[in-house]
Amino acid sequence: MDSETKIIIAVTSGIIIFTIVIGFIAGCLFGVFMSHHMLAEIMMNIMTGVHVDIASINLDINETMLVDEMVKHMPEK
Q1: Percent of the chain that is helix, strand, coil (3-state, to 5)
Q2: Is the pLDDT higher at 17 or at 62?
Q3: Pairing with 48, which of 7, 33, 62, 72 sits 20 to 30 Å away (CA)?
C-alpha cells in the first residue's frame, strides 16, 4: 500500500469512529432527556413536528422500553 491509500483509510476509519462516538453520546443525552416528561415532549415535537398530545401518547408507550434499554447499556456507577 502506498502512503496515499494509508491516509485515506486512516481518515475514513477516523470519521466512522467519530460518528459512532457522537451517536453514542447523543443517544445517552437523549435517554437522559427522555426521563423528564416536559423535555421529552419538546424533543419529540422538534424531531417529529407532531402535536404534544400525540407525542405524549407515544412517550407513554415507548418511554419505559427506552429507559429499560438505557439502563441495560449504561455502565454501573
Answers
A1: 85, 0, 15
A2: 17
A3: 72
Question: What's the rounded Cα separation, in Å, for the pair 19 and 22?
Answer: 5
Written in H, E and C, the secondary structure of the chain is CCHHHHHHHHHHHHHHHHHHHHHHHHHHHHHHHHCCHHHHHHHHHHHHCCCHHHHHHHHHHHHHHHHHHHHHHCCCC
In the numeric block, which cell numbers belong to residue 47?
424531531
Cα–Cα distance, 42 to 56 (Å, whole number): 10
Residue reference for cell 426521563: 35
C-beta atoms surrounding 40 within 10 Å: 20
Distance, in Å, from the CA atom of 11 to the CA atom of 8, rounded to the nearest integer, reads: 5
